[in-house]
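From the methods appendix. Each design record in this collection lists the discretized structure first, followed by the designed amino acid sequence. Records were kept in a plain field format so they could be parsed without special tools. The example shown here is representative of the layout used throughout.

RECORD:
C-ALPHA CELLS (249 positions):
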C-alpha cells in the first residue's frame, strides 16, 4: 500500500504519454492508468491480443518507485502477458525514456520489446487472473456510479478482499469472484468464513460479489452445463456480464 511521491507521479505521467504517442493516438485499452495502491505494475495496457505490464526504472537510481520485480512477474505471468521495464531519465525538468521506440525492455532478458510487433490474429482465452480483474472492474465501476469513494482494489485472485471503499460507517470490503458461463454464479473462496470472522473482529463489515461472464457469440444452449456447448471467453472480444449487486455478509 505504498504511497507515491510527486516526482514519481511526474515520471509516471511522462511514461504514459509516451506509450500513448507510440500507440499512434489515445490508447483505449489501458488496464492500469492510475496511481492507487497496491502496485504490482505501474502501467499496463492491451494492444490487439497482447497484454503488457510495466514498471518504471530511474537509470540514475534516485527515484522512489513503488512495487517490486516479483510483483510485476506475478501479474504478467498470471495474465499470460509481457513483463516489461521502462528505463527513464530526468533531462532538465522532464522525464524521458532512455530506450528507443516504445522505450520498453523485457523484464527478464532486458531485450527491447516492440508491442506492435507482437500482435497476432490468434484467439487467446482469458486466464483466471484476467477474468478476476474484469470482475473487479465491473464491481468497482458500479460502486463509483453509486457515489462510493474507493480506497483500494486488486485483481489478484489469490488476494482477499478485492476492494476496499468508504461505506456509511467507515471502511468496508468486498470479496469479488468471477464465473465463466455456463456457470451462473461464482462461489466464495474456500476460506470465506475465516475472512468474515477476521474483519468482524476489526469492526469492518463486508460484502460478496459474483460476476458471471459469457461470450457475445455464445449459443446459450440450455444443456451447456452437461454437453459443454459454450464459447470460450477470448481476450479483447465482446462479452455479456451478469452482476446483481453486493451480497451483504
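DESIGN:
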Amino acid at each position: 500500500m505504498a504511497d507515491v511521491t510527486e516526482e514519481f507521479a511526474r515520471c509516471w505521467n511522462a511514461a504514459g504519454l509516451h506509450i500513448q504517442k507510440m500507440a499512434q493516438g489515445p490508447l483505449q485499452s489501458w488496464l492500469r492508468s492510475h496511481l492507487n495502491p497496491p502496485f504490482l505494475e505501474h502501467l499496463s495496457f492491451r494492444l490487439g491480443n497482447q497484454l503488457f505490464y510495466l514498471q518504471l526504472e530511474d537509470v540514475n537510481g534516485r527515484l522512489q518507485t513503488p512495487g517490486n520485480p516479483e510483483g510485476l512477474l506475478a501479474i504478467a505471468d498470471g495474465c499470460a502477458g509481457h513483463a516489461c521495464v521502462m528505463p527513464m531519465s530526468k533531462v532538465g525538468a522532464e522525464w524521458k525514456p532512455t530506450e528507443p521506440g516504445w522505450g520498453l525492455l523485457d523484464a527478464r532478458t532486458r531485450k527491447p520489446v516492440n508491442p506492435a510487433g507482437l500482435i497476432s490474429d490468434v484467439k487467446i482465452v482469458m486466464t483466471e487472473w484476467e477474468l478476476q480483474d474484469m470482475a473487479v472492474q465491473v464491481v468497482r465501476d458500479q460502486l463509483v456510479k453509486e457515489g462510493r469513494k474507493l480506497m483500494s482494489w486488486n485483481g489478484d485472485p489469490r488476494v482477499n478482499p478485492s476492494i476496499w471503499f468508504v461505506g456509511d460507517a467507515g471502511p468496508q470490503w468486498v470479496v469479488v469472484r468471477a464465473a465463466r458461463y455456463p456457470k451462473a454464479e461464482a462461489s466464495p473462496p474456500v476460506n470465506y468464513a475465516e475472512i468474515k470472522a477476521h474483519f468482524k473482529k476489526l469492526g469492518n463489515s463486508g460484502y460478496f460479489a459474483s460476476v458471471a461472464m459469457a461470450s457475445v457469440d455464445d449459443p446459450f444452449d440450455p444443456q451447456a452445463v452437461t454437453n459443454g456447448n459454450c464459447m470460450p471467453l477470448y481476450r479483447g472480444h465482446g462479452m455479456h456480464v451478469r452482476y446483481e449487486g453486493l451480497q451483504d455478509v
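APPENDIX NOTE: The chain has two domains: 6-118, 128-248.
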